[in-house]
């Protein structure tokens, strides 16, 4: 995760394992070793595996007071601006398997959104989930 955080390029790291193997504990330990925890955005994937739910959860965790306001495009632009202005160095999405639990169309929309977000924010992402 440290290598991913220190990377100057957007990209992703996928960590998978069965429930109870310590994926979340790994993130907690990693956070404890960081001097600037505020530069790492940690989000639990929402139970509703939709683009809207993920948008809003990311906005909530970054501190937006009214995360439900605006169109998908507005939310995305706001999220990119906030990630950049807050100097976020790494985004961690835990329980990522929830995102894959919806319809095929929802999953594709979420994946396309995440790729776009990684590219536009130029911030690496770490995804944790059960296989």
UniProtKB/TrEMBL annotation:
Gene3D superfamilies given in the database record: P-loop containing nucleotide triphosphate hydrolases (3.40.50.300)
Pfam families for this protein: AAA_22
InterPro entries: AAA_22 (IPR049945), P-loop_NTPase (IPR027417), Sigma_54_int_dom_ATP-bd_1 (IPR025662)
Parts of the chain that traverse the membrane: none
Residue ranges occupied by any ORC1/DEAH AAA+ ATPase domain in the UniProt entry: 9-130
Protein name per the record: TniB family NTP-binding protein
Source organism phylogeny: Bacteria, Bacillati, Bacillota, Bacilli, Bacillales
């Amino acid at each position: 995760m440290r290598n991913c955080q220190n990377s100057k390029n957007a990209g992703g790291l996928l960590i998978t394992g069965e429930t109870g193997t310590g994926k979340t504990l790994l993130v907690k330990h990693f956070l404890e070793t960081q001097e600037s925890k505020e530069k790492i955005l940690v989000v639990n994937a929402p139970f509703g595996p939709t683009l809207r739910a993920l948008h809003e959860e990311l906005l909530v965790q970054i501190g937006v007071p009214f995360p439900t306001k605006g169109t998908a495009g507005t939310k995305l632009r706001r999220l990119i601006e906030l990630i950049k202005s807050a100097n976020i160095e790494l985004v961690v999405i835990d329980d990522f398997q929830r995102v894959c639990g919806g319809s095929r169309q929802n999953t594709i929309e979420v994946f396309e959104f995440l790729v776009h977000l990684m590219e536009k924010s130029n911030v690496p992402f770490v995804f944790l989930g059960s296989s």
